[in-house]
Design brief:
With 335 residues, the protein is mainly alpha-helical. The protein has 2 domains: 257 residues, Hypothetical protein af1432; 48 residues, no CATH class. It is 60% helix and 0% strand. It is built from 16 helices and no strands. Helix 4 runs antiparallel to helix 5, helix 9 packs across helix 12 and helix 13 crosses helix 16. The radius of gyration is 21 Å and the shape is flat.
Amino acid sequence: MTIREELELREKEILAPWAAFSIESKGRAHYEEQCDIRPVFQRDRDRILHSKSFRRLKDKTQVFLSPDGDHYRTRMTHTLEVSQNARTIAKALRLNEDLVEAIALGHDLGHTPFGHAGERALNRICPDGFRHNEQSLRTVDYLEKNGAGLNLTYEVRDGILKHQVNTIPETLEGQIVRLSDKIAYVHHDMDDAIRGGILREEDVPERIASVVGRTLGQRLDRFIHDIITASNGKPVITMSPDIERAFHELRAFMFEKVYTNPVAKSEESKAASMIEVLYDHYMKHQEELPELQKNMIASGTPVYRAICDYISSMTDRYAIMMFESIYIPRTWDVI
Protein backbone atom coordinates (compact mmCIF):
# COMPACT_ATOMS: atom_id res chain seq x y z
CA MET A 1 0.00 0.00 0.00
CA THR A 2 1.37 3.42 -0.95
CA ILE A 3 1.54 6.41 1.39
CA ARG A 4 -1.16 8.08 -0.73
CA GLU A 5 -3.49 5.13 -0.24
CA GLU A 6 -2.87 5.19 3.52
CA LEU A 7 -3.74 8.89 3.59
CA GLU A 8 -6.91 8.26 1.59
CA LEU A 9 -7.98 5.61 4.10
CA ARG A 10 -7.19 7.97 6.96
CA GLU A 11 -9.53 10.56 5.43
CA LYS A 12 -12.33 7.96 5.60
CA GLU A 13 -11.63 7.41 9.28
CA ILE A 14 -11.28 11.05 10.32
CA LEU A 15 -13.38 13.27 8.06
CA ALA A 16 -17.13 13.87 8.33
CA PRO A 17 -19.38 11.70 6.11
CA TRP A 18 -20.23 14.71 3.93
CA ALA A 19 -16.61 15.74 3.36
CA ALA A 20 -15.06 15.57 -0.11
CA PHE A 21 -12.84 12.49 -0.06
CA SER A 22 -9.75 12.48 -2.24
CA ILE A 23 -10.39 8.92 -3.39
CA GLU A 24 -13.87 9.92 -4.62
CA SER A 25 -12.78 12.91 -6.70
CA LYS A 26 -14.46 13.27 -10.07
CA GLY A 27 -10.96 13.44 -11.49
CA ARG A 28 -9.06 15.52 -14.00
CA ALA A 29 -9.81 16.51 -17.59
CA HIS A 30 -6.70 14.64 -18.71
CA TYR A 31 -5.74 11.31 -17.17
CA GLU A 32 -2.61 11.18 -15.01
CA GLU A 33 -0.97 8.46 -12.99
CA GLN A 34 -1.60 8.95 -9.28
CA CYS A 35 1.19 10.23 -7.05
CA ASP A 36 2.42 7.55 -4.63
CA ILE A 37 2.67 10.06 -1.77
CA ARG A 38 0.04 12.79 -2.18
CA PRO A 39 -3.74 12.49 -2.55
CA VAL A 40 -5.18 14.43 -5.48
CA PHE A 41 -6.24 17.59 -3.62
CA GLN A 42 -2.88 17.93 -1.91
CA ARG A 43 -1.23 17.54 -5.29
CA ASP A 44 -3.43 20.33 -6.68
CA ARG A 45 -2.51 22.56 -3.76
CA ASP A 46 1.18 22.05 -4.54
CA ARG A 47 0.69 22.81 -8.25
CA ILE A 48 -1.05 26.09 -7.46
CA LEU A 49 1.53 27.09 -4.86
CA HIS A 50 4.38 26.58 -7.34
CA SER A 51 2.65 28.32 -10.25
CA LYS A 52 3.80 31.59 -11.78
CA SER A 53 0.35 33.12 -11.43
CA PHE A 54 0.46 32.52 -7.67
CA ARG A 55 3.82 34.26 -7.34
CA ARG A 56 2.52 37.27 -9.26
CA LEU A 57 -0.17 37.87 -6.62
CA LYS A 58 2.42 39.53 -4.38
CA ASP A 59 2.53 42.53 -6.74
CA LYS A 60 -1.19 42.90 -7.40
CA THR A 61 -3.43 45.39 -5.62
CA GLN A 62 -5.95 44.22 -3.06
CA VAL A 63 -7.85 47.48 -2.38
CA PHE A 64 -5.42 50.38 -2.02
CA LEU A 65 -3.38 51.30 -5.10
CA SER A 66 0.33 51.91 -4.40
CA PRO A 67 -0.15 52.50 -0.66
CA ASP A 68 2.52 54.40 1.25
CA GLY A 69 3.48 51.73 3.78
CA ASP A 70 4.74 48.18 4.12
CA HIS A 71 1.78 46.66 5.94
CA TYR A 72 -1.09 47.05 3.50
CA ARG A 73 -2.49 43.88 1.99
CA THR A 74 -1.70 42.64 -1.50
CA ARG A 75 -3.64 40.08 -3.46
CA MET A 76 -1.26 37.43 -2.12
CA THR A 77 -1.65 38.31 1.55
CA HIS A 78 -5.41 38.35 0.99
CA THR A 79 -5.16 34.86 -0.49
CA LEU A 80 -3.14 33.59 2.46
CA GLU A 81 -5.64 35.03 4.95
CA VAL A 82 -8.50 33.38 3.08
CA SER A 83 -6.61 30.10 3.18
CA GLN A 84 -5.92 30.32 6.90
CA ASN A 85 -9.52 31.19 7.80
CA ALA A 86 -10.83 28.40 5.58
CA ARG A 87 -8.43 25.81 6.97
CA THR A 88 -9.40 26.69 10.54
CA ILE A 89 -13.08 26.16 9.72
CA ALA A 90 -12.48 22.99 7.70
CA LYS A 91 -10.37 21.37 10.39
CA ALA A 92 -12.95 22.10 13.09
CA LEU A 93 -15.76 20.67 10.93
CA ARG A 94 -13.70 17.62 9.88
CA LEU A 95 -13.80 18.54 6.22
CA ASN A 96 -11.01 18.13 3.65
CA GLU A 97 -8.31 20.65 4.53
CA ASP A 98 -6.26 19.92 1.39
CA LEU A 99 -9.20 20.71 -0.86
CA VAL A 100 -10.00 23.90 1.05
CA GLU A 101 -6.40 25.09 0.81
CA ALA A 102 -6.13 24.33 -2.92
CA ILE A 103 -9.30 26.29 -3.69
CA ALA A 104 -8.29 29.18 -1.44
CA LEU A 105 -4.81 29.50 -2.94
CA GLY A 106 -6.21 29.39 -6.47
CA HIS A 107 -9.35 31.48 -6.18
CA ASP A 108 -7.80 34.82 -7.26
CA LEU A 109 -5.12 33.67 -9.72
CA GLY A 110 -6.95 35.41 -12.58
CA HIS A 111 -7.27 38.77 -10.87
CA THR A 112 -6.14 41.81 -12.83
CA PRO A 113 -3.53 44.38 -11.88
CA PHE A 114 -4.94 47.28 -9.84
CA GLY A 115 -7.58 45.15 -8.16
CA HIS A 116 -11.24 45.53 -9.00
CA ALA A 117 -10.53 48.76 -10.90
CA GLY A 118 -8.62 46.68 -13.45
CA GLU A 119 -11.34 44.05 -13.50
CA ARG A 120 -14.04 46.64 -14.18
CA ALA A 121 -11.95 48.17 -16.96
CA LEU A 122 -11.51 44.85 -18.77
CA ASN A 123 -15.17 44.00 -18.21
CA ARG A 124 -16.16 47.22 -19.98
CA ILE A 125 -13.96 46.74 -23.03
CA CYS A 126 -13.84 42.98 -23.54
CA PRO A 127 -16.69 41.86 -25.87
CA ASP A 128 -17.45 38.81 -23.68
CA GLY A 129 -16.99 40.72 -20.44
CA PHE A 130 -14.40 39.88 -17.82
CA ARG A 131 -14.89 38.27 -14.40
CA HIS A 132 -11.90 37.36 -12.29
CA ASN A 133 -13.34 34.07 -11.03
CA GLU A 134 -13.78 32.86 -14.61
CA GLN A 135 -10.29 34.11 -15.45
CA SER A 136 -8.87 32.25 -12.45
CA LEU A 137 -10.30 29.03 -13.86
CA ARG A 138 -9.00 29.91 -17.33
CA THR A 139 -5.57 30.52 -15.80
CA VAL A 140 -5.31 27.05 -14.25
CA ASP A 141 -6.95 25.34 -17.23
CA TYR A 142 -5.21 26.97 -20.20
CA LEU A 143 -2.62 29.61 -19.33
CA GLU A 144 -0.31 28.11 -16.75
CA LYS A 145 2.74 26.07 -17.82
CA ASN A 146 2.95 27.89 -21.18
CA GLY A 147 -0.54 26.90 -22.21
CA ALA A 148 -0.59 23.33 -20.89
CA GLY A 149 -2.57 24.23 -17.76
CA LEU A 150 -2.36 22.60 -14.34
CA ASN A 151 -4.94 19.85 -15.01
CA LEU A 152 -6.58 20.27 -11.61
CA THR A 153 -9.34 18.09 -10.21
CA TYR A 154 -13.00 18.87 -10.82
CA GLU A 155 -13.62 19.84 -7.19
CA VAL A 156 -10.81 22.41 -7.04
CA ARG A 157 -11.85 23.92 -10.36
CA ASP A 158 -15.48 24.12 -9.19
CA GLY A 159 -14.46 25.92 -5.99
CA ILE A 160 -12.29 28.40 -7.87
CA LEU A 161 -15.03 29.22 -10.37
CA LYS A 162 -17.84 29.54 -7.82
CA HIS A 163 -16.23 31.58 -5.05
CA GLN A 164 -18.27 34.66 -6.03
CA VAL A 165 -21.41 35.84 -4.26
CA ASN A 166 -23.93 34.68 -6.87
CA THR A 167 -22.72 31.06 -7.15
CA ILE A 168 -22.56 28.08 -4.78
CA PRO A 169 -19.75 25.50 -5.00
CA GLU A 170 -20.75 21.84 -5.10
CA THR A 171 -18.53 20.85 -2.14
CA LEU A 172 -18.77 22.08 1.42
CA GLU A 173 -15.06 22.82 1.19
CA GLY A 174 -15.70 25.19 -1.70
CA GLN A 175 -18.49 26.83 0.28
CA ILE A 176 -16.10 27.41 3.17
CA VAL A 177 -13.66 29.21 0.87
CA ARG A 178 -16.47 31.29 -0.63
CA LEU A 179 -17.48 32.52 2.83
CA SER A 180 -13.90 32.83 4.09
CA ASP A 181 -13.07 35.08 1.14
CA LYS A 182 -15.73 37.58 2.17
CA ILE A 183 -14.82 37.44 5.85
CA ALA A 184 -11.15 37.97 5.01
CA TYR A 185 -11.61 41.00 2.79
CA VAL A 186 -14.09 42.73 5.10
CA HIS A 187 -11.70 42.16 8.00
CA HIS A 188 -8.40 43.14 6.40
CA ASP A 189 -9.78 45.92 4.22
CA MET A 190 -11.13 47.56 7.35
CA ASP A 191 -7.73 47.11 9.00
CA ASP A 192 -6.04 48.78 6.02
CA ALA A 193 -8.65 51.56 5.97
CA ILE A 194 -8.02 52.27 9.65
CA ARG A 195 -4.26 52.26 9.00
CA GLY A 196 -4.81 54.72 6.15
CA GLY A 197 -6.91 57.08 8.25
CA ILE A 198 -10.10 56.48 6.25
CA LEU A 199 -11.94 54.76 9.12
CA ARG A 200 -11.83 54.50 12.88
CA GLU A 201 -12.89 51.50 14.95
CA GLU A 202 -15.61 53.62 16.56
CA ASP A 203 -17.13 54.36 13.13
CA VAL A 204 -18.64 50.87 13.01
CA PRO A 205 -22.34 51.33 13.87
CA GLU A 206 -23.31 50.19 17.35
CA ARG A 207 -26.05 47.91 16.01
CA ILE A 208 -23.29 45.91 14.25
CA ALA A 209 -20.58 46.20 16.91
CA SER A 210 -22.90 44.99 19.67
CA VAL A 211 -23.45 41.73 17.77
CA VAL A 212 -20.05 40.92 16.22
CA GLY A 213 -17.56 42.86 18.34
CA ARG A 214 -15.93 46.24 18.66
CA THR A 215 -12.44 45.37 17.44
CA LEU A 216 -11.06 43.73 14.32
CA GLY A 217 -9.89 40.70 16.28
CA GLN A 218 -13.22 40.25 18.01
CA ARG A 219 -15.14 40.36 14.75
CA LEU A 220 -12.91 37.86 12.94
CA ASP A 221 -13.07 35.50 15.91
CA ARG A 222 -16.85 35.86 16.14
CA PHE A 223 -17.44 35.12 12.44
CA ILE A 224 -15.24 32.02 12.37
CA HIS A 225 -16.59 30.63 15.63
CA ASP A 226 -20.15 31.22 14.49
CA ILE A 227 -19.68 29.37 11.20
CA ILE A 228 -18.18 26.41 13.04
CA THR A 229 -20.91 26.37 15.68
CA ALA A 230 -23.78 26.80 13.20
CA SER A 231 -22.41 24.19 10.78
CA ASN A 232 -21.04 21.58 13.18
CA GLY A 233 -22.50 18.12 12.64
CA LYS A 234 -24.46 19.22 9.57
CA PRO A 235 -23.89 18.82 5.81
CA VAL A 236 -24.11 22.59 5.37
CA ILE A 237 -21.93 25.68 5.77
CA THR A 238 -23.87 28.49 7.37
CA MET A 239 -23.98 31.31 9.91
CA SER A 240 -26.51 31.91 12.65
CA PRO A 241 -29.21 34.39 11.55
CA ASP A 242 -28.09 37.26 13.83
CA ILE A 243 -24.42 36.99 12.86
CA GLU A 244 -25.20 36.62 9.18
CA ARG A 245 -27.40 39.71 9.27
CA ALA A 246 -24.70 41.70 11.06
CA PHE A 247 -22.08 40.47 8.58
CA HIS A 248 -24.10 41.70 5.61
CA GLU A 249 -24.61 45.05 7.34
CA LEU A 250 -20.88 45.32 8.01
CA ARG A 251 -20.12 44.49 4.37
CA ALA A 252 -22.59 47.17 3.23
CA PHE A 253 -20.92 49.62 5.63
CA MET A 254 -17.55 48.83 4.02
CA PHE A 255 -18.91 49.43 0.53
CA GLU A 256 -20.26 52.81 1.61
CA LYS A 257 -17.23 53.99 3.60
CA VAL A 258 -14.27 52.33 1.86
CA TYR A 259 -14.94 50.60 -1.45
CA THR A 260 -16.59 53.70 -2.92
CA ASN A 261 -14.65 56.25 -0.87
CA PRO A 262 -13.24 58.97 -3.17
CA VAL A 263 -10.10 59.29 -1.04
CA ALA A 264 -9.32 55.57 -1.08
CA LYS A 265 -10.21 55.27 -4.77
CA SER A 266 -8.74 58.52 -6.09
CA GLU A 267 -6.18 56.79 -8.32
CA GLU A 268 -8.46 54.10 -9.72
CA SER A 269 -9.54 56.09 -12.79
CA LYS A 270 -5.89 56.41 -13.79
CA ALA A 271 -5.35 52.69 -13.40
CA ALA A 272 -8.48 51.89 -15.42
CA SER A 273 -7.39 54.26 -18.18
CA MET A 274 -3.99 52.56 -18.29
CA ILE A 275 -5.66 49.15 -18.73
CA GLU A 276 -7.85 50.49 -21.54
CA VAL A 277 -4.88 52.08 -23.31
CA LEU A 278 -2.87 48.85 -23.12
CA TYR A 279 -5.82 46.87 -24.48
CA ASP A 280 -6.23 49.28 -27.40
CA HIS A 281 -2.49 49.18 -28.12
CA TYR A 282 -2.31 45.40 -28.30
CA MET A 283 -5.42 45.21 -30.45
CA LYS A 284 -3.51 47.36 -32.97
CA HIS A 285 -0.12 45.71 -32.42
CA GLN A 286 -0.70 41.98 -31.98
CA GLU A 287 2.88 41.32 -33.03
CA GLU A 288 4.01 42.67 -29.64
CA LEU A 289 2.11 40.03 -27.68
CA PRO A 290 4.05 37.19 -25.99
CA GLU A 291 4.46 33.91 -27.87
CA LEU A 292 1.81 32.17 -25.76
CA GLN A 293 -0.86 34.65 -26.82
CA LYS A 294 0.28 34.58 -30.45
CA ASN A 295 0.05 30.78 -30.48
CA MET A 296 -3.41 30.88 -28.89
CA ILE A 297 -4.63 33.34 -31.53
CA ALA A 298 -3.19 31.12 -34.27
CA SER A 299 -5.12 28.19 -32.74
CA GLY A 300 -8.43 30.06 -32.86
CA THR A 301 -8.62 32.05 -29.62
CA PRO A 302 -10.23 35.45 -30.30
CA VAL A 303 -7.69 38.25 -30.28
CA TYR A 304 -9.52 40.20 -27.57
CA ARG A 305 -9.53 37.16 -25.29
CA ALA A 306 -5.81 36.59 -25.73
CA ILE A 307 -5.15 40.25 -24.96
CA CYS A 308 -7.32 40.07 -21.82
CA ASP A 309 -5.35 36.97 -20.80
CA TYR A 310 -2.11 38.89 -21.13
CA ILE A 311 -3.21 42.10 -19.42
CA SER A 312 -4.95 40.32 -16.54
CA SER A 313 -1.79 38.32 -15.86
CA MET A 314 0.26 41.47 -15.36
CA THR A 315 1.29 42.72 -11.94
CA ASP A 316 0.71 46.39 -11.12
CA ARG A 317 4.39 47.11 -11.60
CA TYR A 318 4.63 45.28 -14.93
CA ALA A 319 1.54 47.00 -16.32
CA ILE A 320 3.01 50.40 -15.45
CA MET A 321 6.33 49.40 -16.99
CA MET A 322 4.67 48.27 -20.23
CA PHE A 323 2.61 51.47 -20.38
CA GLU A 324 5.73 53.58 -19.91
CA SER A 325 7.72 51.62 -22.49
CA ILE A 326 4.98 52.14 -25.07
CA TYR A 327 3.88 55.72 -24.40
CA ILE A 328 6.53 57.57 -22.38
CA PRO A 329 9.40 58.98 -24.49
CA ARG A 330 12.84 57.81 -23.45
CA THR A 331 15.96 59.90 -23.22
CA TRP A 332 17.87 59.75 -26.50
CA ASP A 333 21.59 59.22 -26.08
CA VAL A 334 23.82 59.98 -29.05
CA ILE A 335 26.80 57.66 -29.18
